[in-house]
Structure formats: C-alpha cells, structure tokens
Amino acid sequence: MIKNGDSTQLERQWKILSILSWENNGMTINQIYQRLAKNFGEEVSTKTIKRDLDDLTMVFPIYEEGEGRGTTYTLEKYKIHDFIFSVQELFALFFTREIIRKYDTSEIGKMALNFIERIISYIPSIYDDYIDRLYRTFLIQKDIDSDKNVTLDMLETINDAIIYKKSIKMRYYSFTSDTETEREVDPYLIYEKEGHYYLTGFCKLHNEIRDFRISRIKKIKLLDKSFEISPNFDKSKYYKYTWNILKGSTKYRVQIRFVGNAARLVKEYEGYRADEIVENNDGSILFIKVVSQLDEIKRWVLGFGCEAEVISPDEFKDMINDEIIKMAKKIRSE
C-alpha cells in the first residue's frame, strides 16, 4: 500500500502515475525511469520504481503485460463522460464550485476554482441545462475575503517544513505590537479560518506555541534544523477553547443570559458556538462557553447591548462593565 507517512515515496509514486496516464500503450520500467529523469529531474533505481509499481497496483488499475525487462505497465484511464451523474451529484458539484469561488482572490483559491471548472467543462453537454438553471436560481454569497498575498510557494515551503519537521526562520509583522521581528519557529500545522491562513508552531522568540497569520510573514527560509512536536501540544484541545483566533492559558467558563430578540437570534444563528444553551421558561437563554481568552468574546457580547447580561465569571463582568463606562464617557464628552 502507499505509505502516506513517507512523503518522498508518495510524491514519487504520484509522478509515476502521471507518467503512466500520458501513455496509452503501456511503459517499461526503463521508460518510466527515463521519463522521471527527463520530466521531473527524479533519479532513482529501477528496483525502487518496481517497488513503487508493486505498491501502486494494489490501489490503482495498473496492468502488467509481458515478462522480464520487456514487461509493460498500463494505467486504465477513466473519462468523465463514462459516468452518469445523478441530480444530487450535479448539485453537489455546482455547490463545490460556488463554495470554492469564495476563495478565488487567493492564489490557491484560484487554482482550486480552475480545477473544478475544468472538471465541469468535461461533463457531457446533456447536463449543461441543469447546471445553467442552478447558476440562475441558486446563490451562495461571497462573505469571505481570503488572503490575497499568500502564495503557493509560501504554503509549500511551510508544508515541507511541517512534513520533514524542519524549523523555519521568518520575518513576521505583529499586528498587536505593530512591529516586524525575526523569528525561528518549529511549524506544527497550517489551518484556514474565514478565508485567512494561519501557521501554528513553537515560537522560539517567546518560548511558547503561537499562531501566525501567514499573510503577515514577510520573508521565510527553511532551515536545516530538525525538531519534534512538543508532547504538550494537543491539536484538538489547542483549538477547542478559542472564540475566534486568540488563545490564552486560562480557562474561563463564560455564562451569558440573553433576552428578547437577542435570545432568539443567538439560539438560531450563534448556537453552534456554545458548549451548552439552557432555555428558560421566560424565553431567555443561558449561553455557556469555555474560552481561554476573553477579549474576542467581549466584543461579541457588547454587540447585543442591554439584551445580554454576563452572569460569570466575575472578571468578565468587570471587563464588560469597564468597557460600557468608557463608551458612556465618550458619548457624554461628544
């Protein structure tokens, strides 16, 4: 089977699949060897290619003909017009394209959109009318402003560093301090949220795990320094207690009582963000959420005005109260 943990082998096997897809009459191992060198600059032994082919034939429809050095390998090709699409599958394909369209201001988003549009262009013309009708009657709003200056080269550099567990050196602009600093980081993973790409890794400048918005990385260099992921890093727990992006080291069990229209709005549109919602007989709700940082949820609560009441913790009640007093002073001074 393909060994997903071994990226070098996985990439090489993908190249072999690509080479086989170019030929209709099959190829010998020596021919594959020559194509790997010519088209990809990859030089490996014929024994390695044979092992790769043995792995691939267990997963993909690759057929052998002949014996010895004259053995040829043929990849059975499937064309999209060989398939019959159900209405649900056509709808899903259209839906996928429109979702990806939200990200088309970024380089990777444009590539993804071009890819799905290529697939749609090969669909038999008998399905064109249905897709056109969907386009006219079904709208997915573009409510994401994806990062425009995050390049594929940048993402590939970071991804290589994560796969091979190599540290990176980068010049990073901090929005909080409004300064640029040189940092050495052990990268753990890349994640996307609301169209923005982030790197999670161990920052050696601050000696802790931090998140970096990739669009704020001004320069990046892959270092020849290996690292191991901290045993204290638990991906599921690291992101569990965030409201949006910011993270802290303290856990706060926030309880907010919503009344009136705010109660109905939060229940319908924001309920998924709660750990628990308790519905009261008077129509109010108790919104419960454990977070590790209070600033982001503070801005959210203030947006509901007098229809939101912080029940606990006390430090969060004080934060909201202080903010309201400051706001009132500004209004009176004007």
From TrEMBL:
InterPro entries cross-referenced by the UniProt entry: CBASS_pafABC_assoc_protein, WCX_dom, WH_DNA-bd_sf, WYL_dom
Domain WCX: 251-327
UniProt-listed Pfam families: WCX (PF25583), WYL (PF13280)
Domain WYL positions: 154-221
PANTHER family xref list: PTHR34580, SLL5097 PROTEIN
Protein name according to UniProt: DeoR transcriptional regulator
Organism: Thermoanaerobacterium thermosaccharolyticum (Clostridium thermosaccharolyticum)
